[in-house]
Amino acid sequence: MSHSNQFTLFSHIGGHNGWKVAFVLEELQLTYQSVYLNFRKNEQKAPEFTKYNPNGRIPAIIDHSNNDFVVWESNAIIQYIIDKYDKEHKLSIAPGTDEYYTQLQWLYFQASGQGPYFGQAVWFSVAHPEKVASALERYQKEIKRVLGVLESVLSKQEWLVGGRMTVADISFVRWNIDAATRLLENFDFEKEFPATAKWHNKLLERPAIKKVWEERARLVAQQQ
After folding, report:
1. Could you give the domains of the chain?
2. What are the 10-residue block averages of pLDDT along the chain, 224 residues in total?
3. Rounded to whole angstroms, how far apart are CA atoms 167 and 103?
């Protein structure tokens, strides 16, 4: 792989967590090369990749400007990027402040509260070989519960922390796209969760996020 870019990002075109890392890299104008693993060929489980991520999942990054240092787990990657390369705190809160821990709180909530439940909704609605109505109902309810948590905060303030957009907000974008478009039946995002929908749409309009998402759309179209 070329090291002309600062980072190598191991990702997956149809996946989720690699794209939120790309959003952050693009927002900070850091250079990166994406390597899209083929899950049908189990490339994420191959030794060529598990030497970087023993968990055999995406994403993982190699930081070529830091002796090829490797980080895996998406929100750990995001934390690494902002700690190392967002010294002006364009996307982050300064360490040691109370709001820094609020930012961490939202990153942990996204990783533990949003991603797994939304991911299980995708699995049981798309990938599971049989339809399990009780599982679908459970995870669709969890999606609305998580959106309700966001709504309870965003109905009172514009952003999750610090009065401005941070990685805490960005971390939710990718899974919320699926919630808004395909995971819930007869779902009116703007009507049911108006503040969260407004926040989500503002994030989608950011040039860096729009650029990354358009690149994903191009790659998806090539596969069809």
Report:
1. 7-91 (3.40.30.10), 98-204 (1.20.1050.10)
2. 84 95 98 95 94 96 97 98 97 97 98 92 81 85 96 98 98 95 92 98 98 96 85
3. 8
- Report the C-alpha gap between 115 and 142 in whole angstroms: 11
User: Tokens for 118?
Assistant: 């939304």
CA 143 to CA 141: how far, in whole Å? 5
Q: Is the pTM of this model over 0.85?
A: yes
Q: How many CB atoms lie within 10 A of CB 59?
A: 26
Three-class DSSP category at 8: strand
Residues whose CB is less than 8 angstroms from the CB of residue 129 and which lie 6 or more positions away in sequence, other chains included: none
CA angle 202, 159, 153 (to 5 degrees): 115
Residue 76 CA, chain-centre distance (Å), reads 12
Q: H-helix or E-strand containing 62? A: strand 60-63
